[in-house]
Amino acid sequence: MIDTAPQHADAEGVDAGVGLTALLVATARAIETHRPDSLAQDVYAEHFVRAAPVCADWPVRIQQVPDGDSNPLWGRFSRYFGLRTRVLDDFLLRSVRTSARQVVLLGAGLDTRAFRLDWPADCVVFEMDRAGVLAFKHQVLTDLSATPKAKRVPVPVDLRADWVTALTTAGFDPAAPSVWLAEGLLFYLPSPVETHLIDTVDGLATEGSALAFEVKLEKDLLKYRTSAIYTATREQIGIDLLHLFDKGPRPDSAGALTAKGWSASVHTPFDFTHRHGRGPLPEPNDALEGNRWVFAHKPRHALVEGLPDEAECE
Ligand code: SAM
């Protein structure tokens, strides 16, 4: 058993606490989906938003937001999530095309990649999140008669406790290459949990595996309390992200992986805004300033030299 210091707002489902952030991201994806210039399409996203009473009055189209794109929450933050979805879609698809056939989504939330993306026929997607979040997701997708494009295996767990047994019992094979994603997850977890999670992924990931994750580098998160994004999220939909984020000093997970022999490249979201021509740009008092997207690969011994930098792969 690892450090189980309380995570803020321990509600199990999507209607409160950190689970509600899954609906925030789904709403952003719904808005992104219906834009003419969208970077990612998720036709299921708006159904999650409409199925949850807690967000009955949240928008699912940018036209439903009075100040539209200039709204810090549904404009800029949605651009951020839209870009993040696209970049990580691309990362996962590249990884399964090269070797991995097992995809593990840590803190999967309302991620519908198992349904949206064109996976190789023999791919398995493991979705790990709390039982209440996965139950809500299952109900909505069942009501839609949605069909996954890969074998999909929900694994209900609390990632603060031991989750390896649940994953391997669900069919994960540590001897075969895998690709892992921790999208919008680590900053909600206590620092020792993040360290343990990264160590555990390293232990379960054979050579040829890959991992992408998102971190926040800011030493003092509260410095951004008055930022437009945090203020709008708090005032418009009652989610106080700074309350939910863990405030302890963060581990250097990219450095830890490098020390274990992985390659890791670290990018700002803004790098990808420039590449895709859409996404957030830096602004004063910017709560996204410290966000980094990390792309790590565990090399095959024969290929230690010359691994591609993720940023150069597209
Ligand atoms: N990765 C998804 C996405 O980007 O759409 C969801 C991101 S949402 C911001 C954070 C997710 O992490 C929520 O679904 C929440 O339930 C999950 N999460 C947070 N702490 C967790 C924990 N201790 N165990 C399992 N899941 C957790």
Task: Describe it.
There is one protein chain. This protein is an alpha/beta fold. The protein has a single domain, classed as Rossmann fold (3-Layer(aba) Sandwich), CATH 3.40.50. The chain contains eleven helices and seven strands. The protein has helices spanning about 15-35, 45-50, 70-100, 115, 130-145, 165-170, 190-205, 230-235, 240-245, 255-260, 270-275; strands spanning about 100-105, 125-130, 150-155, 180, 210-215, 265, 290-295. The chain has a seven-stranded mixed sheet, with helices on both faces. The radius of gyration is 18 Å and the shape is globular. The protein starts with 16 loop residues before the first helix and ends in a 17-residue tail after the last strand. About 45% of the residues are buried. Mean pLDDT is about 95; it is low at about 310-314. The protein binds S-adenosylmethionine (SAM). S-adenosylmethionine binds near residues 108, 109, 130, 158 and 159. S-adenosylmethionine binds near residues 107, 108, 110 and 133.
* CATH architecture classification name: 3-Layer(aba) Sandwich
Write the CATH homologous superfamily.
Answer: Vaccinia Virus protein VP39
Radius of gyration: 18 Å
- Identify the overall geometry: globular
Q: pLDDT below 50 for ≥5 consecutive residues: which ranges?
A: 309-314
Give a concise summary.
With 314 residues, this protein is α/β, with parallel strands linked by helices.
